[in-house]
Amino acid sequence: MQYTFQNETNAATLSADCVVVGIFQDSALSAAAALLDEASQGELSTLLALGDFNGKKNETYLHYPRSGVNAKRLLLVGLGKREQLTSATLASAAGKAAEQLKTTQMQTIAFFLSEESQIDARPASIRQCVQAISAACYTFDGFKSAPATETTTSDKHWIIADSGSADFSVAVTQGVAIANGITLCRDLGNTPPNVCTPAYLADTAEDLAAADKVTLKVLEESEMEALGMGAFISVSKGSTLPGKMIVLHYNGAGNDDAPIALVGKGITFDTGGISLKPGAKMDEMKYDMCGAASVLGSLRAAIDMDLKLNLVVVVAAAENMPAGNASKPGDIVTTMSGKTVEILNTDAEGRLVLCDALSYVEQFKPAAVVDVATLTGACIVALGSHICGLMSNDDDFAAEVLAAGRKADDEAWQLPLGEQYQKQLESNFADMANIGTPGAGTITAGCFLARFTENMTWAHLDIAGTAWKGGAAKGATGRPVPLLTQLLINRAASA
Ligand code: BES
Ligand code: MN
Ligand code: ZN
């Protein structure tokens, strides 16, 4: 697959196997559709007048132009009501078109969609269109003995066209980088837990470290013990697979530029440990490393975009298993920070691996740190699977993360932190318990992490509801790679 940007083109003169063009509800022509209509002496208005197609969201219609148009085919895509148009609508239309065209023999396919968005929103819109095309072509069938569907995506050339005079080729490059980051994230999430182990995540990090500006250090359990990471070890020790703390540095800016730190929960399988989870849908706990997958995917994108900023990416990779030597409810462990934790539930393991990872990144004096984790089932209760939970110790930074999510159509919603909730974590025997008293489970998990990030500008994303889909369309979503990469793009631009 290949993606290119083409500007100063007219939809009617562009030569392609297919031109994809938007039509608004009630048959209103987009700018590109109006040009095509004029060039073809009204072919589009004639067909719209027949009423076969009227521009409802994601409705499609394939038309073979008879005159005045260089493209062999036109695919009309419904955009819904013009006054309700968002970049997400345009991206969804692009995805719908790609879905329909990916199994055809057409090779050169040009999209005239992003030009319908405001000029300053266009780069984000273009990035989203590229992501939608990539998502439509995504397959994960390497574990089937024969692919489920025959596709012809490898020789496709997707053209993002825009009749405006501005050059948005950077946005296309970025869109491709982000799409590849999302694909890496999804692939890691979907890979079965007997393959995607802590060592596999470390191997993936090693692949990323092949890039010029990237260095890698993998802390083994013995080193973590020496650093006093008792919380991490308490989770990992019940598994026969060694846990890994994976530390990547991306140097895209000057040496004394404070980095952004991204920390991911990488539980490659969460059985719950001795506080064993029930059996139903337990397979989905292979997705408990999606926070890790998303920070690795975002690093992939940052490398490919050649972003001018410094990044530290830390993945806390371990398997949470019941075993004779596993942690028990009641155990008390000492974290790298020196604070002690009473483990009341071994299934609240994400915060245990993350607290030591967060203490570890403090030495890099990050400008800001974001941790990403499939942390609590309670987040699904609160926000469902549409929006990520966000908690932060800095309202300005929270606003920045929320804005990045909105721009990337990968939304988060802020939940509070505070003393009332902190009290729920009190323990009779240690500095804190690893679970709160009943109620506000997402917030008490955030409060736990807040105790390890007091000296940093920090935000926490709970992606338990957004990282994967269950049911018939089971699979990793790649979220929140779009949010994280948008945040990085914004930071690099403001540096
Ligand atoms: N990985 C789970 C959270 C989770 C559960 C994500 C279901 C997606 C779907 C996490 O490790 C966990 O088990 N959390 C517990 C915390 C509880 C013991 C305080 C939970 O949410 O039940
Ligand atoms: Mn758990
Ligand atoms: Zn977990």
* Percentage of residues in DSSP E strands: 15-25%
Overall residue-averaged pLDDT value: 97
Percent range of helical residues: 25-40%
Low-confidence stretches: none
Kindly report the CATH topology of the largest domain: Aminopeptidase
Largest sheet, strands/sense/barrel: 8 strands, mixed
**Broad CATH class of the largest domain:** Alpha Beta
CATH superfamily of the largest domain: Zn peptidases
How far is the N terminus from the C terminus?
Answer: 33 Å
- Taken together, the total number of domains comes to 2
Number of strands: 20
Say which molecules are bound, naming each kind only once.
ligand BES, manganese (II) ion, zinc ion
Shape: elongated
Write the CATH architecture name of the largest domain.
Answer: 3-Layer(aba) Sandwich
Structural class: alpha/beta
Radius of gyration: 24 Å
Strand order of the largest sheet: 8-9-11-10-14-18-15-16
Question: What tags apply to this protein structure?
Answer:
15 helices; Leucine Aminopeptidase, subunit E, domain 1; Aminopeptidase; binds ligand BES; binds manganese (II) ion; alpha/beta; binds zinc ion; 2 domains; 8-stranded mixed β-sheet; 495 residues
Structure characterization notes:
The protein has 495 residues and is of the alpha/beta class. The chain has two domains: 2-163, Leucine Aminopeptidase, subunit E, domain 1, CATH 3.40.220.10; 181-494, Zn peptidases (Aminopeptidase, 3-Layer(aba) Sandwich), CATH 3.40.630. Helices cover 34% and strands 21% of the residues. It is built from 15 helices and 20 strands. It has helices spanning 31-39, 43-50, 87-101, 122-136, 169-190, 198-208, 221-226, 230-236, 290-305, 350-361, 377-383, 395-407, 419-422, 441-450, 481-494, and strands spanning 2-7, 18-24, 28-29, 60-63, 74-78, 108-112, 157-162, 214-219, 244-251, 260-270, 310-320, 332-334, 340-342, 368-373, 388-392, 412-414, 432-433, 458-462, 468-469, 475-476. A hairpin with a 5-residue loop joins β12 and β13 (340-342). The chain starts with a strand and ends with a helix. The structure holds ligand BES, manganese (II) ion and zinc ion. The site of manganese (II) ion has 4 residues, from loops. Residues 270, 288, 345, 347-350, 374-378, 435, 441, 464 line the site of ligand BES.
